[in-house]
Amino acid sequence: MTKNNFGLYLIITNPSLPYKEIAKTAVKYKIKYLQLREKDLSDREILKAAAEIISVTRGTDTKFVMNDRADLAFLSGADCLHLGQDDVCLSDAKKICKGKVCEFGLSTHNIEQVKDAVKQNPDYIGFGPIFKTPTKKKPDPVTGTEKIKDVLAIAGDIPVVAIGGINKENIQSVLNAGAKNVCMVRYFMDTSDLDERISDTLSILRKHS
């Protein structure tokens, strides 16, 4: 894997397994980014979960990513902050984090948002939902796989993570469309066989690359 092609991006949302166990598995397989995305928890609960995860990931190849909240990223000591289209803008997030958070990612859902994101020069861009997904209460329109090559061309040297409804059955079509980095939320969070599923997915990614 290269800087742009790190393969698997892992998001924790309503997990079947404890946070620490997920973090240990991510570290075991050297997953570059492990994001905490728990929309229904209180700020205190999010910070508690973040502390559990960071106690495992700190000093490893796995970077802890806080979702949406620049203030909680700062307080938790997150390595990275991921921002959505409705969150504080990247320039303001950097001011809030005051140099404590090292990397920033941006979610995008269409070509225009990708172009705008590139102007802000994030460390990576999330693009999707590629397929229909129930993970979000208000999902954005499905992008399909056809736009992936255009997104990669626009992003240039900025890594792109394909996300949304990706699973074991359809991941190959996403990779065939040009994606090098993928995120599979439900596939990993709805199982107690996380280790096996990550191992299998990494094998698929290696074979494709």
UniProtKB/TrEMBL annotation:
Gene Ontology molecular-function annotations: magnesium ion binding; thiamine-phosphate diphosphorylase activity
Chemical reaction(s) catalysed: 2-[(2R,5Z)-2-carboxy-4-methylthiazol-5(2H)-ylidene]ethyl phosphate + 4-amino-2-methyl-5-(diphosphooxymethyl)pyrimidine + 2 H(+) = thiamine phosphate + CO2 + diphosphate; 2-(2-carboxy-4-methylthiazol-5-yl)ethyl phosphate + 4-amino-2-methyl-5-(diphosphooxymethyl)pyrimidine + 2 H(+) = thiamine phosphate + CO2 + diphosphate; 4-methyl-5-(2-phosphooxyethyl)-thiazole + 4-amino-2-methyl-5-(diphosphooxymethyl)pyrimidine + H(+) = thiamine phosphate + diphosphate
GO CC annotations, alphabetized: cytoplasm
Alphabetical keyword list: Magnesium, Metal-binding, Thiamine biosynthesis, Transferase
GO annotation (BP), single: thiamine biosynthetic process
Enzyme Commission designation: 2.5.1.3
Binding of 2-[(2R,5Z)-2-carboxy-4-methylthiazol-5(2H)-ylidene]ethyl phosphate, residues: 133-135, 165
Cofactor binding: number and manner: Binds 1 Mg(2+) ion per subunit.
Record-linked InterPro entries: Aldolase_TIM, ThiamineP_synth_sf, ThiamineP_synth_TenI, TMP_synthase
Pathway: Cofactor biosynthesis; thiamine diphosphate biosynthesis; thiamine phosphate from 4-amino-2-methyl-5-diphosphomethylpyrimidine and 4-methyl-5-(2-phosphoethyl)-thiazole: step 1/1
Enzyme class: transferase
Role this protein plays: Condenses 4-methyl-5-(beta-hydroxyethyl)thiazole monophosphate (THZ-P) and 2-methyl-4-amino-5-hydroxymethyl pyrimidine pyrophosphate (HMP-PP) to form thiamine monophosphate (TMP).
Protein name: Thiamine-phosphate synthase
Organism: Methanomicrobium antiquum
Gene this chain is encoded by: thiE
